[in-house]
Amino acid sequence: xxxxxxxxxxxxxxxxxxxxxxxxxxxxxxxxxxxxxxxxxxxxxxxxxxxxxxxxxxxxxxxxxxxxxxxxxxxxxxxxxxxxxxxxxxxxxxxxxxxxxxxxxxxxxxxxxxxxxxxxxxxxxx
Length: 126
Description:
Number of helices: 5
Radius of gyration: 18 Å
Strand order of the largest sheet: 1-2
Shape: elongated
Strand content: 5-15%
Distance between the termini: 30 Å
CATH topology of the domain at 9-76: Arc Repressor Mutant, subunit A
Order of helices and strands: HHHEEHH
Helix content: 55-70%
Largest sheet: 2 strands, antiparallel
Number of strands: 2
CATH class of the domain at 9-76: Mainly Alpha
C-alpha cells in the first residue's frame, strides 16, 4: 500500500478496511487478518494496525472476540456510510461551497452538474 504523507497511516489503514467493506471484499462477520499479519502485509508497525483496529472498534465497525481476533460487525456498511456522509458534509462540503461561491457557480448550476455526473456514472455501469 502506498501511504499518503498528508494523513496518518492508521487512518489510511482504517479507510482501506472500510473501503473493502463497502466494496464487498469483506462481509459481516468475516474475520480480519491478525494485527501482526496485517502489519506484515502492509509493512507497518503492529502498533499502527492496532490503533486502526481500536479506532474501527470504537466506531462499531469491527469487534474483537477475545483470543480469536477481529471481525466485521453486523451493520458495518450502514455505520461506515453514516460516518463518511457526516465527515463529507462537515469537512469537505463547506470547502466545495466556498469554492463554488468564489467562482460564481450557483446552486442551480451545481445541481445540473451533479445530475450530469450521475448520468455519466450510470452509463459507465451499463
